[in-house]
Each structure stands twice: as structure tokens, then as C-alpha cells.
Write a structure and sequence with these properties.
With about 200 residues, the chain is mainly α. The protein is built from five helices and two strands.
Length: about 200
């Protein structure tokens, strides 16, 4: 009597293992194709266009009643500064003339002391003259700052309401650009300023 032998299954297992490996490979290929398709679709999707508008700050500032008041105050302070400089210059010139008249009557020590004093005054007047333009320009900027803040707030309000991403100023001579009139929001900014004497602060975007 023959002893029964175990069924030969090694071939079946080997076949099953190959089928599973092929299935896994197919899954990986499908997944890779899906990712590639998704990436290509995302690349093919058009990007949102940036909306840009322009305005003219010169027109806006010229239309503000507060501008006249600021300019009047600036002109008054500028006149006072120049008057002070002229007075200091005239006083120094008179002192120099007086020194020339009495110089021969002074002792060498008095002459030297007076000359040093006059030289110090002369340097002070020269410093005043050199700094005058800088001080005037700084004061002008200080007086205009509140006006520019109101304009900036109005521009931001119009930009957010109309959905613009960027607003450029035509008055900026350092930027060369060309824009269609339909992109100009100067009139809208003027309406915003006239309708809101006190514009509420809006969040920056």
C-alpha cells in the first residue's frame, strides 16, 4: 500500500505571490498616474489676475479744504524763520562794521577776543542758513502728514470696496507706467473724502 503524498502547492503559492505583486505594482502605477494627473490639472488651472487701479494724489490733495489751512500755516512759519535769519545776519553785519570802526582803539587782547566772538556768531548764522531749508521741508511734511493719512485711508476704503489688490499713484514721478482711464479711481477717492469727514480706520489688506 502506497503512502499518500502531500499535494504539491509550492507552484500555486508562487503563482499567487506573482499575482499579488503584479496587483500591488498596478495599484502603485494607478496612484502615480492619479497624482500626476492632479498635478497637471493644478498647473493648468489659471491663476487669479491681480487687479490694479491708479489715482492722482495731487488732484485729491488740491481738492481738500484743509490743504489751504496747512499751506497758510506753513507760509507763516517759513516767513518767521527767514525773518529770524535776516535779523541774525543784519545784527552780525552791524557788529562787524562796529568792530572795524573801533579796531584801532582796542588792545591786541581785546581785538583778538572780539574777533573770536564775531567769528563764533558768523558760524552760527551760517549754520542757521544751511539748516533753514531742511527745517522748512521737515515742517512742511509734518503739516501735510494728517492730510496724507486721510487720503491713504480713503484710498484703502475704495480699494477694499472695489476689490483691487494694488493702487498706484500717478503723482509718483519715480514710477513710469501707463494706465487706462477706466482704472483711475481718483473720483471715487474724492467722493469717499467728501462723504466721510472722519473716515473709520479699516484693516490693512
Amino acid at each position: 500500500m502506497k503512502t499518500p503524498t502531500a499535494p504539491r502547492t509550492s507552484g500555486s503559492f508562487e503563482l499567487l505571490r506573482h499575482l499579488l505583486a503584479a496587483g500591488s505594482l498596478a495599484s502603485l502605477v494607478l496612484a502615480s498616474d492619479a497624482r500626476g494627473q492632479s498635478t497637471r490639472e493644478s498647473r493648468q488651472q489659471p491663476r487669479a489676475m491681480m487687479r490694479v487701479a491708479v489715482f492722482d494724489s495731487r488732484v485729491v490733495l488740491d481738492s481738500m479744504p484743509e490743504r489751504m489751512s496747512a499751506e497758510s500755516e506753513f507760509a507763516l512759519e517759513q516767513a518767521k524763520a527767514r525773518t529770524m535769519l535776516n535779523a541774525a545776519t543784519d545784527s552780525l553785519r552791524a557788529a562787524l562794521d562796529e568792530f572795524v570802526q573801533v579796531e584801532s582803539q582796542l588792545s591786541p587782547r581785546q581785538r583778538e577776543a572780539t574777533a573770536m566772538h564775531l567769528r563764533a556768531r558768523e558760524l552760527l548764522v551760517e549754520e542757521m542758513a544751511a539748516n533753514l531749508d531742511h527745517v522748512i521741508l521737515r515742517r512742511q511734511a509734518e503739516l501735510q502728514q494728517p492730510l496724507r493719512e486721510r487720503v491713504r485711508t480713503a484710498v484703502r476704503a475704495v480699494r477694499l470696496r472695489a476689490g483691487y489688490d494694488l493702487v498706484l499713484d500717478r503723482a509718483n514721478e519715480q514710477v513710469i507706467f501707463d494706465a487706462d482711464d477706466s482704472a483711475d479711481i481718483t473720483a471715487a477717492v474724492l467722493r469717499e473724502l467728501r462723504g466721510n469727514k472722519e473716515i473709520a480706520r479699516l484693516p490693512k489688506r
